[in-house]
Each structure stands twice: as structure tokens, then as C-alpha cells.
Design brief:
By secondary structure, this protein is of the alpha+beta class. It has one domain. It is built from 6 helices and 14 strands. The chain has a 5-stranded mixed beta sheet, with helices on one face. Helix 1 packs antiparallel against helix 3. The protein is globular, with a radius of gyration of 16 Å. The N terminus is likely disordered.
Length: 218
């Protein structure tokens, strides 16, 4: 097992009302087919929640392909890699999301301490810590609210999303979000842009942690 290194401290999330207002300013509510009043009312009624809480729209309403272009890093918009056209088919695996349009993700963590672990190594370790991995849409929501969470050499996988093949087995690809170098098929104009891509289940990467949360509630 690779060495565990402490994660740098990350800034706390803003209030749920501020998060709701930001989602509305980005037009996420319109993309999801819900009203701005509904988003604000949810934030208002849950404002007293304990701990660091992230406001998320259910991925059935706002999937990764819709949210990714809203991401920004160094002034560049986010994009999904060309060989992940099936990104929205990566569904929650082993995680039950609240059956509501809006919900909270509690105490998100980037998982830097597990950098250079494989997903196969990280998942049981997260379970022992009573944490669950973020699904891809949750990771994108986190970056919409806190772009500074995505740092070069400190990016993350969202292994709560997996693609199940027709034969019932899981695809070996696992979603991740990092910063493009502008090489290869990305194109030089995408250098420093937020990038939604994938890594193999059994591979390790020194610059990818494993984003997780303590829970979800509505």
C-alpha cells in the first residue's frame, strides 16, 4: 500500500443560500427543469444543517455532460474527454442517493491522503472511515462552488460512479476530474481547463486523490 500523506486544508463551503444563488446564476436550475424558488426554498429550510454541506442537484436532472461546461479553471471552461461520450451512463454504484431533486452532500473531502492509491485500494479504506466516494456529478457540483479545490497535482477521482456493462460486469474505467495539459486530443486551447476523464480501476496516479463524503441527506 502506498504511503499516506496528509491532505492540505481546503476552504469551507459557503452557506447553502449562497450556493443556491450561485447555481441559479449559472442556470443550473433551468438545465435541471426546476425553479429558482425551489432551489432557494430548499436552501432556506436546510440552512441550519451541521458540518460542511454541499448543495447538489440529482444527477438524473443535471447529469455530468450538462454540468461540465459550466466548470472554470484559469478562465477555461470544462470539458469531457472525447473517448467518454458515455459519461452520463456512469451511475451511482453501491451508493443510494436521496430520491429528491435537491440534496446535501456532507463534509466533502478531496482524498489527497490516498493519492497514488488505486480505486481498488481506496474504496475499502473509505468504507472503514465510514465515508462514501462522490459520484461524478457531485464532484462537479463541488468544483462549481469551490473552483480552488481543483489544483494541479491535487485533483481527484469520483469512483462512486461506475458503468455497468450489458453482461452485468463493471467497466474498468473510473471517472476523474483533473486539469488538462492541452496535449493530444485535448488540444492546446484547452490547456489548464477542467477535464472530466477516466482512469483504470487498478491503476495509481500520484496526482489523483479520491473524493468522498460522510453522507447525503435531503
Amino acid at each position: 500500500m502506498p504511503d499516506v500523506t496528509p491532505a492540505p486544508s481546503l476552504p469551507p463551503l459557503r452557506s447553502l443560500t449562497a450556493q443556491a444563488q450561485h447555481l441559479i446564476s449559472l442556470g443550473v436550475h433551468e438545465l435541471a427543469g426546476i425553479s429558482a424558488d425551489q432551489v432557494l426554498a430548499f436552501a432556506d429550510t436546510t440552512e441550519s444543517s451541521d458540518g460542511d454541506a454541499l448543495l447538489a442537484v440529482h444527477p438524473d436532472l443535471a447529469p455530468a455532460s450538462v454540468l461540465t461546461p459550466l466548470l472554470r479553471h484559469a478562465g477555461r471552461p470544462g470539458f469531457v474527454v472525447t473517448d467518454m461520450a458515455d459519461v452520463d451512463l456512469f451511475a451511482p454504484c453501491g451508493i443510494e442517493l436521496p430520491d429528491t431533486p435537491l440534496y446535501l452532500v456532507t463534509d466533502p473531502d478531496r482524498g489527497d491522503r490516498m493519492a497514488n492509491w488505486s480505486p481498488d485500494e481506496a474504496l475499502p479504506a473509505l468504507s472503514k472511515e465510514k465515508r462514501t466516494p462522490l459520484v461524478l456529478a457531485e464532484g462537479i457540483h463541488w468544483l462549481l462552488q469551490q473552483p480552488a479545490v481543483l489544483e494541479r497535482n491535487h485533483c481527484f477521482m469520483t469512483i462512486g460512479s461506475r458503468l455497468r456493462k450489458a453482461n452485468g460486469t463493471l467497466d474498468a474505467r473510473t471517472p476523474a476530474i483533473w486539469i488538462s495539459n492541452g496535449s493530444g486530443r485535448d488540444g492546446s486551447d484547452r490547456r489548464n481547463a477542467p477535464k472530466v476523464g477516466w482512469c483504470w480501476w487498478n491503476n495509481r496516479h500520484t496526482w489523483l486523490g479520491f473524493a468522498s463524503a460522510t453522507g447525503r441527506r435531503h
